[in-house]
Amino acid sequence: MISLRRTRLRTALLIGCSTAAVSALIGVLWAFLAPAEHLLVVAEGRGIALTGESLHQFDAVAIFFLLALILGVLTGVAAWLARLSRGPYALGGLIVGSVLGTALMAAVGTGIAKLRFPSVDNPAVGEIIARAPGIGTLLVLIVQPLAACITTLVLVALSPYDDLGVADHADDADVEADVLSEPATQELS
């Protein structure tokens, strides 16, 4: 017979691996959504951004941020649905999976973006080239784990049970029906 602890460890491992795998797939999505920045080559090794193109650096970071935020919320809810494993094991698997997943998301996404927009060696002066998008700042790597933790915190706070609903509980409607069906009698002394 498999112990409850072993089941919780397996579920935590499954949560972590699934989160990391889905994050890598979202990195592929980001690579196709993030726009390239177009530059005009003005001298050898120097280029200037065309009008409005420098905003694409922000666009790439904002798209990464939003995808990581959405993924963090969804993985937090998905981990919560593993009812028998709710608690520190599931949260640990979720955090580890989110940290590894957001790193994979950035690595896979920037790698595919560089394949989509390869760097040009020795472009001619006056040529317009596309530069691959990047994540811009490493601070966006904290978004997915933070969103997953906050989502889990909210779900824990909203749980009506001390054990987070792991054990089987009587339906609240059945309990109310039993209380209402008993006659209210009081002794007068």
TrEMBL record:
Q: Which residues form a coiled coil?
A: none
Its transmembrane ranges are: 12-33, 60-82, 89-113, 133-158
**Keywords assigned by UniProt, alphabetized:** Membrane, Transmembrane, Transmembrane helix
This protein's record includes keyword Transmembrane: yes
What InterPro entries would the database entry show? DUF2567
**The protein's name:** DUF2567 domain-containing protein
